[in-house]
Amino acid sequence: MILAVLSGKGGAGKTFVSVNLAVTAGRATYIDCDVEEPNGRLFLKPKDIKEKPVSSRIPEFDPEKCSECRKCVDFCQFNALVYVGDRPVVFPEVCHSCGGCAIVCPSGAVKETERQVGTVETGWRGDVRVVTGILNPGEASAVPVIKSALKTGCAAEELTVLDCPPGSGCSVLESVSSADYCILVVEPTAFGLHNFQMVAELVWLMKKPWGVVINREDGAYPPLEEFCTQNAIPILGRIPYSKKLAGLCAAGQIACTSDEETGHLFARLLYAVREEAET
Ligand code: SF4
Ligand code: SF4
């Protein structure tokens, strides 16, 4: 089963939930798809790491063949091409590797070359396989690294936990596309609810089954409870606001193994997720 853990904004507790679910499961794969800020490895501290480069294809222009028609520049929807002097020039960090400029070129002047945009690391923490996508700084598109991390880590026969990027952009879509079930992590605040509703729209659009984990709960927040009730959204678990948990996270500790009460909480959460996902 592939579980995608999402949140509307960074810092809601998505990595905390993902890491602790994977460790609670025992034998599992954790994939960090939040490739711009992959923090899961700070908690899991994987060993025996192997690295794999991730590349994208970018255009290269042959001045001998170029007829200076500018069709490639006009075609590029990502503004990755400009015409300088008598030839097109590409901004590699902005290119989305769509291949369109090579297709529209009437002179065969465009060929594609490989360029490294990131890395996928694979290591182990006990029986948990830890796959981490890492996007090179300054790159515009996280999608190639996410695709490579998913291809490396997703295995149907075991529990796979995807720690998705925050928000509801195309990198989140890519991460969630292969998931069997989604967990939305939300803080019980007005800001948290607003961002949570945007991600809820996304999982509804993608027709994925899903439920909610309320993080840092310090008393009920009625608007969130009402939203879940009105839309028949299951609340899978509630993680209390706790200085002890905050301290464990700040120290890079895995809470479910460091604190017995939290260990029970995540065991119940994993059970609830499996029950919901299998019905
Ligand atoms: S491959 Fe696509 S995004 Fe990149 S420069 Fe060509 S048209 Fe633009
Ligand atoms: S489309 Fe081809 S021929 Fe036209 S400017 Fe671009 S590279 Fe040159």
Describe the overall structure.
- Strand 6 and strand 7 form a beta hairpin.
- The chain is an alpha/beta fold and 279 residues long.
- 36% of the residues lie in helices and 29% in strands.
- The chain has 2 domains: 2-54 and 129-278, Rossmann fold; 56-116, 2-Layer Sandwich (Alpha-Beta Plaits).
- The mean pLDDT is 93.
- A 9-stranded mixed beta sheet has the order 3-6-7-2-8-1-9-10-11, sandwiched between helices. A two-stranded antiparallel sheet has the order 4-5.
- The radius of gyration is 22 Å and the shape is elongated.
- The protein has helices at residues 14-25, 40-44, 71-75, 100-104, 143-153, 170-176, 190-205, 222-230, 243-250, 255-258, 260-278, and strands at 2-6, 28-32, 47-61, 81-84, 87-90, 110-125, 128-135, 159-163, 181-186, 210-217, 235-240.
- One iron/sulfur cluster is lined by residues 61, 66-72, 88, 105, 107, 109-110.
What is the terminal separation in angstroms?
13 Å
Order of helices and strands: EHEHEHEEHEEHEHEHEHEHHH
Using DSSP, what is the number of strands? 11
Q: Given this structure, which CATH class of the largest domain is correct?
A: Alpha Beta
Number of helices: 11
**What molecules are bound to this protein?**
iron/sulfur cluster
CATH superfamily of the largest domain: P-loop containing nucleotide triphosphate hydrolases
Write a brief caption for the model.
With 279 residues, the chain is an alpha/beta fold. The chain contains 11 helices and 11 strands. The strands form 2 sheets. It has a 9-stranded mixed β-sheet with strand order 3-6-7-2-8-1-9-10-11, with helices on both faces. A two-stranded antiparallel ribbon has the order 4-5.
